[in-house]
Design brief:
The chain has nine helices and 23 strands. By secondary structure, it is α+β, with helices and mostly antiparallel strands. The strands form six sheets. The chain has a five-stranded mixed β-sheet with strand order 4-3-12-7-8. Strands 5, 6, 9, 10 and 11 form a five-stranded antiparallel β-sheet that branches. 37% of the residues are buried. Bound molecules: ligand MTE and molybdenum atom.
Amino acid sequence: MSENTPAGPLDRRNFLKSVGLAGAGAAAVATGARAAETADKNITEVQDWNRFLGDGVQAHPYGSPSRYEKEVVRRDVEWLTVSRESSVNFTPIHALDGIITPSGLAFERHHGGLAQVDPAKHRLMIHGLVDKPLVFTMDDLKRMPGRISRAYFLECAANSGMEWKGAQLNGCQFTHGMIHNLWYTGIPLRTLLDEAGVKTTGKWILAEGADSSGMTRSIPIEKAMKDCLVAFGMNGEALRPEQGYPVRLVVPGWEGNMWVKWLRRLEVGDAPWQAREETSKYTDLLADGRSRRFTFVMDAKSIVTNPSPQMPLKMKGPNVLTGIAWSGRGTIDRVDVSLDGGRNWKAARMDGPAMPLSMARFYVDFDWDGRELMIQSRARDDSGYVQPTKQELRQVRGVNSIYHNNGIQTWLVRENGEVENVEIA
Ligand SMILES: Nc1nc2c(c(=O)[nH]1)N[C@H]1C(S)=C(S)[C@@H](COP(=O)(O)O)O[C@H]1N2
Ligand SMILES: [Mo]
């Protein structure tokens, strides 16, 4: 059966015939298909959905996933949650494919709960060291010339933060799920700053959120002028409340904390503000007691999402290994995968568009003979940066920090197909 053979879903006779053909050849086995069974009830018995009319249009004005996909949800970790209002949940990256995170599954990190902002009452103010202080309504932003749309990853600096001292959380949703990759629509921050006229003394920007946490972060003016976005859209529709509706700052490649949600104020100053989130938090405590500060860039990182603890191997023979990679320094240009704990490496097949500061998808088609595997992935970006091992990282950074852990992850696949978070000594 060629890939183009039409097989109408209602034409059961033809479908059976084509399955029979596909099952007959050895080629089908090698590609993962099972030989056709003579009396598979799933084919021979007419199913309800094949017998009765379905819902009409307008039964679901805003669509949602199939009822059979109920387990694909954001999840939190009880012991990481002091209060739900200042908490985090995790993107189910183990169950996703491609590079765009579905809007309803993008992880959330709130310091003061989810603000429900009325766009009609929302204002964005620009002031400080500018020639002309400005106030924008949402309508103003939406009719600004120069709107653009781009895909960027956002990773919380604390992603994998619980793994510094050793393997802990059993599932890539929990070890690596503080990431999403969304398609943003908005106005380059530079356009707004140019309209206000930044004075030559203006070297830093303070971004402030309208939520109860009043999140503030300092951003160097060079970055603000280079590629930051004031975004009101994500994945083709309005931002979700969880992501800062009606408007958030997008700071491509830099730590998620700087991407201020419910953005209401931009102040231009001559020095950083030393806000809470850049002093007591989001600084990296080293082994000798000193701290790294303003560690903005998210270094290259990758993770095998399948197989992984939440996605065990079900069958021997052909299997698809897949995962994601990203880098705050540029474009992912290669991911290597090892099945034996880093002894031998093989370049994975990269698929989908390779875009700077966006997630990349990789695949390795492999045959599992039922033996134990130690799966690892190692990302490289076009700046030449290569993702380090956890040991290499600890030698430089110690284990005190919870931030910027981009070390290589190891998954142990047992003979029964179960997968566990481990480390190689
Ligand atoms: N106003 C505001 N902006 C915020 C936060 C917040 O609590 N309030 N959390 C920050 C942190 S720590 C991260 S990691 C990202 C999370 O973005 P997300 O909720 O879209 O995943 O938003 C950042 N921006
Ligand atoms: Mo964060």
